[in-house]
Design a protein that fits this description.
The complex is a heterodimer.
Chain A (H helix, E strand, L loop, with lengths): L3 H5 L5 E6 H12 L3 E4 L6 H8 L9 E4 L3 H12 L5 E6 L2 H12 L8 E7 L13 H7 L3 E2 L4 H18 L2 E7 H4 L1 E7 L24 H24 L4 E3 L6 E6 H10 L8 E5 L1 E3 L3 H9 L3 E4 L6 H12 L5 E3 L13 H11 L28 H12 L5 E3 L25 H9 L7 E6 H17 L5 E6 L27 H8 L3 E6 L3 H13 L4 E6 L3 H9 L9 E3 L9 H6 L4 E3 L5 E3 L19 E3 L10
Parallel strand pairs in A: 2-3, 2-4, 4-5, 5-7, 6-7, 10-11, 10-13, 13-14, 15-16, 16-17, 17-19, 18-19
Antiparallel strand pairs in A: 1-8, 6-12, 9-11, 20-23, 21-22
Helix pairs in contact in A: 2-3, 2-7, 4-5, 5-6, 10-13, 14-18, 15-16
Chain B lengths: L3 E8 L4 H14 L4 E5 L9 E8 L13 E6 L2 H10 L1 E10 L6 H4 L8 H10 L3 E5 L10 H11 L8 H11 L2 H16 L1
Parallel strand pairs in B: 1-4, 4-5, 5-6
Antiparallel strand pairs in B: 1-3, 2-3
The chains are: A alpha/beta, B alpha/beta.
Chain lengths: 630, 192
């Protein structure tokens, strides 16, 4: 078996099949990156998995999962102004969290260099929106490189690092979901480790590093001047691509993964257009673009999400009075969704109907029942929702937050009726409680989110006396993104560390009403929630159960592990269907006659369901019914 | 030459990632240009997990265009029907492991469970070759993927991949008892 960690540290040049999220780690190694930080979020967590494959003692750089994206950005910045090439990576909406710091970075003289790796998510595959983070780049005068595949991820990171070190400025490497997760054979260069100089290089004379009113304007001038210098890099880089199909009538300017979709969409097309694929999407290589515009009669700008490149190119053509016709976005749908080969086929056929036929099968009807994601068998959140629902009136308001427990909004639970972003539930709930004495308001929160962004909302609820109930769904890990440790885990990415227990934090903040229970004790949990929502002050219920997916995976590593499951005594079962229709564990299977059986492939034998059966028909496997409480 | 497109599907937890990577690497060992992409994140929690593989010089994006899959590999019956209905070409091939993980609406009695006949009807109407795999006695449900892989090879469903390529790919990805057990099952299914 090939070990990823060994591969990432090879001294010789080699090639290997890797995903984009792995290729970038080899690029970090070769570039001499010294400090890397992150907060987990799809599509980027596998970058950390690749880093983890290198034993900490062999790792040529420091890595940590920080408490949130803003903290991670500040850490990477601090290291970079001390002379270390640094990198921070996180998902699309992570930049919103980091924004307060991020927008200042370009004002600073970042002597070590700093690459900001964004995992944008066109199509909102696993995010609450599909925001186009290039807007932040424009707002902050920050260059952006946009690779299309794993090989480009590797080369573009190297370029971003060189650019950042040369101009001492932040550079964005903008990845998207299917660039992060694409796999292909990538050819890597050799790695000649250089002994890093660890003398702290920070010197205020390299600044100013204080963007106060007197300085901020001058610092902006410097940032803008640096960005103009980068434009020259964008012109001269070997990373731009031209596909010359000998077509002087029609050209396409595009970038990133949409370029590959375009190549697919043009398969079999008559009279293919010439293509200019940009490596830098900010700042744009003006001369290169003008040359392309000048040598074609009609140019299509094929751009995923918003029309930032399109508008700039139209300005160039207008200012120079170029005789080219530029076709940008035509329909509102052109701003929406990932530019897959199918989508690009549609965009292209709307532009040039004679060139490309849209795929007739795009709208093919799905013949199978919809399958939404759901909580895993044994998930403590399922027991929690089952219990909490008993304690609330149907008109009460439940506010969700980000995490696996967000899935509680689905039937049969329908718990969590509003969702915004990380840590937002407590303050939204506080607002919903104003001028409202008739409907109780309950907020949910995961434990990683608690540390990430929830504390200001919680402190506000205490400070301003908002009488809501917060239910902390504590599973001991950052489950949705792949079980990363957090501040209450007792481990960080690299070592054992002090736990910061959620309860002690709440007590320290002065929360007077705190209850705590394992969610498998459903009756007790329901009772505690009833008690807490009756109190006219801010209260917290810590609803705890370890993530069973993580727990079961760890158990399976034990050679003596045997999968347990429950069974249903058909003589006792009265087909009331509480197990299916209220508790809703995916393990329960219903046949056409309404009989319930156990899918033993799925069941982990956690037995949390036993207490939900009104007739006590469920029992641990091998035992008959009347199995008693879990 | 047209790209050869493979669409793998199933439910989170069934081992789509491993069978996909074995095929990806086997294709590479066979000397063909290949790329793939997997679903990660939220959908893995009991939702649909998809992996796509594209083989050939003329495959650019790792995403298979709608209706352009030459081969659909499903580890679950509902997902077999879904993928056959939405991404498989007419006259393409469908291979699926005949197990059922009921979607929520089936469990809630809102929709009917997909039957084997639903798949056969759809495939007959569109000239799709269909192979259903099931083993009563697998030592571990996480080996269903290897049983399917053996059938894929037995029927030579992916052009240009030989036995030795599959074997090398498995050795790239597994070691110790996991490799031994999966290889044994794969070999046993081949000779069955």
């Amino acid at each position: 078996m090939k070990k990823m960690g060994d591969m990432l540290l090879r001294r010789d040049a080699f090639s290997e099949i890797v995903m984009g999220n792995t290729a970038i780690v080899r690029a970090m190694v070769e570039a001499g990156t010294r400090v890397v930080s992150s907060y987990p979020g799809s599509p980027t967590p596998e970058i950390a998995l690749a880093i983890q494959s290198i034993p900490e003692n062999d790792r040529p750089f420091y890595f940590e999962f920080s408490t949130n994206e803003k903290v991670a950005t500040e850490l990477a910045y601090g290291a970079a102004v001390n002379g270390h090439l640094s990198t921070v990576f996180f998902k699309s909406v992570g930049l919103n969290v980091a924004a307060d710091t991020f927008v200042q970075l370009s004002l600073m003289n970042i002597i070590g260099g700093m690459v900001v790796v964004l995992g944008d998510d066109p199509g909102a595959n696993s995010s609450q929106n599909e925001q186009d983070n290039r807007h932040f780049a424009h707002m902050s005068y920050t260059p952006v490189l946009e690779p299309a595949d794993p090989a480009e991820v590797y080369h573009f990171y190297r370029e971003a690092a060189r650019l950042s070190q040369t101009h001492r400025m932040p550079v964005i490497l903008r990845l998207t979901t299917h660039v992060c997760h694409a796999k292909e054979r990538v050819t890597f260069g050799a790695w000649n480790p250089v002994q890093p100089g660890d003398t702290p290089q920070f010197d205020p004379a390299n600044g100013p590093y204080l963007p106060l009113t007197t300085q901020a304007i001058e610092m902006k001038r410097t940032a803008m001047a640096k960005l103009e210098q980068v434009r020259q890099w964008a012109e001269e880089t070997a990373l731009n691509r031209v596909v010359d199909n000998g077509n002087t009538a029609r050209g396409v300017i595009t970038m990133g993964l949409p370029f590959l979709s375009l190549m697919d969409a043009l398969d079999g097309a008559a009279a293919k257009p010439d293509i200019l694929k940009l490596a830098y999407v900010h700042p744009l290589p003006r001369k290169t673009i003008v040359r392309f515009l000048s040598s074609h009669r009609v140019v299509k700008i094929l751009e995923e999400l918003d029309d930032l490149v399109e508008n700039q190119i139209k300005v160039m053509a207008f200012d120079l009075q170029l005789p080219v016709k530029i076709i940008g976005k035509l329909l509102p749908e052109d701003w929406i969704g990932e530019y897959t080969p199918d989508k690009v086929g549609h965009v292209l056929s709307a532009t040039w109907p004679d060139m490309v036929q849209p795929a007739a099968t795009l709208e093919a009807e799905d013949p199978a029942p919809h399958r939404p994601p759901q909580m895993c068998p044994g998930c403590g959140h399922r027991s929690a929702f089952q219990a909490i629902k008993q304690a609330l009136a149907p008109t009460d308001i439940t506010v969700a937050d980000i995490g696996c427990h967000t899935l509680g909004f689905l039937p049969p639970y329908e718990m969590g009726q509003l969702l915004m972003c990380m840590g937002a539930s407590t303050a939204m709930a506080s607002g919903l409680r104003l001028f409202n004495t008739s409907r109780k308001v309950v907020a949910f929160m995961g434990d990683s989110t608690f540390f990430h962004a929830a504390l200001p909302g919680i402190i506000n609820a205490i400070f301003n006396r908002h009488p809501i109930t917060l239910i902390l769904m504590e599973n001991g890990t950052t489950a949705m993104t792949g079980h990363q440790d957090h501040a209450a885990s007792g481990r960080n990415f690299n070592e054992v560390t002090d736990k910061i227990p959620v309860r002690q934090v709440l007590e320290g903040l002065g929360v007077k009403h705190i209850a705590e229970v394992d969610t498998y004790q459903q009756a007790k949990l329901a009772e505690l929630v009833s008690e807490m929502i009756a109190i006219d002050q801010f209260s917290v219920v810590i609803a705890r159960h370890p993530c069973m997916l993580k727990f079961t995976r760890e158990q399976r590593k034990n050679p003596t592990y045997q999968q347990k499951h429950v069974t249903i005594d058909q003589r006792v079962c009265e087909r009331i269907h509480t197990c299916i229709e209220s508790f809703g564990c995916p393990t329960f299977t219903r046949d056409t006659e309404g009989n319930v059986s156990i899918n033993t492939d799925l069941c982990i034998g956690d037995a949390s369901c036993i207490q939900t059966c009104p007739t006590k028909a469920i029992a641990p496997a091998g035992k008959k019914g009347k199995g008693g409480d879990a | 030459m047209k790209a050869f497109n493979i669409y793998l599907t199933g439910v989170g937890g069934q081992g789509i990632g491993l069978i996909s990577e074995v095929i990806l690497r086997a294709t590479d060992h066979g000397g063909h240009p290949v790329k793939s992409v997997d679903t990660h994140g939220l959908a893995q929690r009991g939702g649909i997990v998809v992996s796509q593989i594209r083989i050939g010089e003329n495959a650019f994006s790792p995403l298979v265009p709608a209706g352009q899959a030459d081969l659909v590999i499903s580890l679950e019956r509902h997902e077999a029907l879904r993928a056959a209905g939405t991404v498989l070409k007419d006259k393409g091939c469908l291979i699926y492991y005949n197990t059922v993980w009921q979607p929520l609406s089936v469990r809630l009695n809102e929709t009917a469970e997909v039957a084997e006949s639903d798949i056969q009807d759809l495939c007959r109407a569109r000239g799709i070759q269909v192979i259903s795999v099931f083993h009563e006695d697998l030592p571990d449900i996480r080996m269903q993927n290897m049983a399917v892989l053996a059938e894929i090879h037995r029927h030579r469903m992916i052009p240009g991949i030989d036995l030795k390529h599959y074997q090398s790919a498995m050795a790239d990805l597994m070691s110790g008892s996991m490799l031994k057990e999966n290889r044994e099952l794969f070999d046993k299914c081949l000779t069955a």
